[in-house]
Amino acid sequence: MIGTLYFKVLSRVSLLLLPVALFAGDQPSAMLYTHGTALINGSAVERSSALFSGDLVETNASSAANITAAGLIVLISNDSLVQYQEHGVEVQHGGITVSTAKSLTTRAGGIVVAPAANVWTEFAVRDADGRVQIEARKGDVTISDDKGTTTLAQGQQTTREESTPQEDDKKKKKKKKAAAGAPPAGVGGVLNSPVAIGIGSAAIVGVAAWVFVQGDSPASPAKP
After folding, report:
1. How many CB atoms within 10 Å of residue 55?
2. Rounded CA gap, 162 and 171, in Å?
3. CA atoms of 196 and 210, how far apart (whole Å)
4. 204 φ/ψ angles, rounded to the nearest 5 degrees
5. Rounded to an integer, what distance in angstroms lies between the CA atom of residue 140 and that of residue 147?
6. Using one digit for the tens of pLDDT, what is the confidence trace for 137-150?
7. Of the chain's two ends, which shows fewer C-beta atoms within 10 Å, N or C?
8. What is the average pLDDT score of the chain?
9. Rounded (10°) angle between helices 2-23 and 194-213
């Protein structure tokens, strides 16, 4: 009897959650604000737009932009190509300034820059011609590459060579070209959104109550 009721609950909850999965939209994980015309995956953005993990942001010689997310602010300088990611950003060309209170990473070629501690940290990263310039403006940062990990103290700056400059330049050109026709990327299942979770919880409680109220009567009553 318990097995039958459990099966009924799961069946009805699945039917109720299906429309939620079909009609609920993916939730953006960040916002992009532009100063001048910038591009997201090749499409022009004149003021602001939602941003999803995997989106490519490109500024030209006369534009700039900033990304705002939970615990993260990224200022993108002019003539830059940056990919927003779930756990940080990747600089494919140009420069950015990162302010964060989380362990979010910034990648440039084969180099990874991250706050040395979970405190509000500000640093700048610029990637040009196979050379990565890093400046720790507030707080210390760690720099990791194929040679290991070192710490750059607040107020210090350094320059590193990309691990494979020629290959990275080819990848950047391909990504920049592909960005012109790429659709916006999305992340996060719809069932992870607060709205979907709330609807799902209400559905489970409602269906379970209905099933147990009906539990006193057989599913297929037999004639006397």
Report:
1. 26
2. 13
3. 21
4. -60, -45
5. 19
6. 999 999 999 889 99
7. C
8. 74
9. 150
Exposed e or buried b per residue across 137-156, where buried means at least 16 C-beta atoms within 10 angstroms of its C-beta: bebbbbbebeeeeeebeeee
Q: How far apart are CA 61 and CA 187, in angstroms?
A: 30
User: Is residue 135 within 8 Å of 157, Cβ to Cβ?
Assistant: yes
pTM above 0.70, yes or no: no
Residues 90-136 have pLDDT tens digits of 999 999 999 998 889 999 999 999 999 999 999 999 999 889 999 99
- Sorted by sequence, the CB contacts under 8 Å of residue 193 that are 6+ apart come out as 24, 27
Q: Are 179 and 38 in contact (CB under 8 A)?
A: no
> Cβ distance 211 to 1 under 8 Å?
no
What lies within 8 Å, CB to CB, of 173 at 6+ separation is none
Three-state SS string over the chain comes to CHHHHHHHHHHHHHHHHHHHHHHCCCCCCEEEEEECCEEECCEEECCEEEECCCCEEEECCCCEEEEEECCEEEEECCCCEEEEECCEEEEEEEEEEEEECCCCEEEECCEEEEECCCCCEEEEEEEECCEEEEEEEECCEEEEECCEEEEECCCCEEEEECCCHHHHHHHHHHHHHHCCCCCCCCCCCHHHCHHHHHHHHHHHHHHHHHHHHHHHCCCCCCCC
Q: What pLDDT, on the 0 to 100 scale, is given for residue 196?
A: 38
